[in-house]
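Cross-posting from the chemistry board since nobody answered there.

I work mostly on the small-molecule side, so proteins are not my area. We synthesized magnesium ion and want a rough idea of how it might sit in this target. Sequence and SMILES are below. Is it possible to get a predicted 3D structure of the two together?
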Amino acid sequence: MANYDIGIDLGTTSIIIYVVGKGIVSKEPSVVAVNKKTDSVLAIGQKAYEMAGKTPAHIVVERPLQNGVISDIDMTEEIVKYFIKKVSSSYVVKPKVAICVPSAVTNVEARAAVNAALSAGARKTFLVEEPIAAALGSGVDISLPRGRMVVDIGGGTADIAVISLNDVVDSTSVKCAGTQFDDRIIQYVRLNHKVLIGEKTAERLKKEIGSVKKVMEDTEMEIKGRSLETGLPVKITVTSDEFIPTLNEFAMTLVVAVKGVLEKTPPELVGDILEDGILLTGGGSLIKGLPELISGETGVQCRVSENPIDCVAIGTGMALDLIADGYSLSYSSDY
Ligand SMILES: Nc1ncnc2c1ncn2[C@@H]1O[C@H](COP(=O)(O)OP(=O)(O)OP(=O)(O)O)[C@@H](O)[C@H]1O
Ligand SMILES: [Mg+2]
């Protein structure tokens, strides 16, 4: 019988679903639109995201997962149930579900995600740690007695981990990831151009021209916002180079954290990392100049995963495969 087990990357920016044997079947923003008058959920995922910033006062678009933690357990449960039902409605056999939760979640929060999966019809649920999933989904053989360093730069947090023998040897988490880079861009434009721009504009700017080190020709971009001087809508032209100092300064928080983990890592494992390089995953690893900056500052080569955004969902699904093969993974929790 075909295997329809599910791997879920419950990210703070997006929730990505991988079905074993099928691949990635769903990728939507992890947001919920709530009607505050009736306390009812109006939309989840892409539909809710499209409403952001365009709703009447009583409708609020919320991110129940923020800064790498679950800030609203009930809403997170709604999200998990909605997506499991969406992708498994045609199943005859109840699926096994593996969930990758943000690294800093508490046991209570993780259990909430597990309960949501069970109440959405999962037969069994497992939790997978994000660095493990990121490495597996990037094709790294983590079963070897060999030190691997994974730096996952997501929406809310950057997680730095050293893995060996299927387990996390050491890890740390810093709030230096996608959303905080967007915030830096908003702040910069407000201070230097006296214009207020929205989150979506800042994110687009970051993806198109943002860089933490000079790695491309200076490029212009036109953005729209509201003038803080006149209060009216304006269009301004910004350049990629002008953002480098502020984004570079912020990215150094991540560099310092990577150095800190390297300093604490046992020498044998550091030797392996020096040979293999650092694996960068997560959407934030696509910020221009970041691999070059980390390599330059640490002296260790960086490689960006072939699937930086999808690898966590893929790896979460792969972990299920290994569990099914009778392989015992110390990071899986069978509730
Ligand atoms: N091409 C790109 N250039 C720069 N940043 C990007 C690019 N593509 C995506 N991002 C950023 O990556 C972030 C999302 O990354 P990802 O999908 O890995 O997060 P997540 O897994 O939901 O979050 P977390 O792991 O923190 O829970 C967003 O801030 C997004 O703006
Ligand atoms: Mg992630």
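Reply from a structural biologist on the board:
Welcome over. Reading the output above for you: Residues 9, 11-14, 68, 102, 154-157, 177-179, 203, 206-207, 282-284, 286-287, 309 surround adenosine-5'-triphosphate (ligand 1) (CB under 6 Å). The chain has ten helices and 18 strands. Happy to explain the token format if needed.
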